[in-house]
Amino acid sequence: MAGGPSIPELVAAVANGGGVGSFGFAYHHPDKIKSDLRVARNLTNGPINANFFVFSLVEMPSLEICRAALQVLSALPGAKDIQIKLPQPPFYPNLYDQLEAIWQEPPEILTFHFGLPNKAVIAKAHELGITIGINATQVAEAEEIANIGADFIVVQGIEAGGHRGIFDPEGLDEKLSTLDLVRAIKSVISLPVVAAGGIMNGRQIKDALDAGAIAVQMGTAFLTCVESGASAAHRRLLLGEHQRSAELTKAYSGRPARGIATEFMQLMRDKTILPFPIQNSVTSAIRKAAVERDDGEYQSLWAGTNYVLCKDENVAELMQRLEQELRAT
Asked: What are the two backbone dihedrals, phi and then psi, of residue 115, each rounded to the nearest 5 degrees?
């Protein structure tokens, strides 16, 4: 999950525990990417994955739509005294500039979300011995991934926390479960698949492996670990607000993403929302202020549907528990 949680200490702890530590570098500046990779390298000799968004071209909507969206946000109780303004183009970082940091500090794995990178990117990564994975939410996307030369597919089921990786957020979303999607993709594609979405324990890992995955990708389970960079409110709600559902919303960023239900999400239902990632930029001031005042109701508390299984533990304890649970199956 991009943003605060995937700090070098968490990434290194996962790699030291026998997993692949993963960075979410969606909005990071190249200098920050290089710095985080170097810090992690000083903490582990284990494998590291760097994940990036493949942004699509976007234009600022009409003045009327922009005004309506700003009025909605400004009227929120959690936005009092916060200056909310429209961003200036470019609205997202240049992927190729970001990847320059990767070529200088190569991780073992490079993965992409929301779409396909340029074939030249895949060729460059392979030259450096970097393995390429790309996220798929349906069979058609997996077929495109197989045809472009990726090494594996991250199969994201509907249960996953964070941003839904669908290539076209305005297109048909089949919303298949993780296990059903793994089986569907494995029935037609020979590439290895990594299962992602709702996986929190050894039993669920075993189910994913039995369905045809070679490994699993987990995010939510690590958010409450000691080493996580998740905010205090994020941890608190993950561990203690189990009556809340984990819902998909476009309200924070303009793209569907799953998180713990909050006041912000409720108040933004059926309201004017700007396209991704312009909405993400516009809401950033609200979210930042909410972190500063420890208010979870206006933060993007990304979480999968099984977040109630989160525990207060360190990464080593979590990794050991997962291994024990897996062996017990």
From this structure: 160, -170
Q: Where are the beta strands (DSSP E) in 60-214?
A: 109-113, 131-136, 152-156, 162-163, 193-196
- Return d(Cα 15, Cα 302) in angstroms, integer: 22
Q: What is the DSSP letter of 117?
A: P
Residue 151 backbone dihedrals phi, psi, to 5 degrees: -90, -30
pLDDT of residue 4: 87
85 and 97 in a single domain? The answer is no
Domain assignment present for residue 3? The answer is no
| Mean per-residue pLDDT of the chain | 97
pTM: 0.97
CA distance 286 to 14: 31
Evaluate whether residue 219 is within a structural domain.
yes
User: 304 in a domain, yes or no?
Assistant: no
The pLDDT of residue 320: 98
Residue range of the domain that includes 40: 8-55+93-248+309-328
The answer to whether the CB of 241 falls within 8 A of the CB of 263 is no
Summarised one tens digit per residue, pLDDT across range 249-290 is: 999 999 999 999 999 999 999 999 999 999 999 999 999 999
The residues near 111 (Cβ < 8 Å, ≥ 6 apart) are 22, 49, 50, 51, 52, 132, 133, 134, 135, 154
CATH of the domain at 22: 3.20.20.70
Split at pLDDT 50, 70, 90, the class of 160 is very high
Give the number of other CB atoms < 10 A from CB of residue 80.
9
Dist CA 192 CA 186 (whole Å): 8
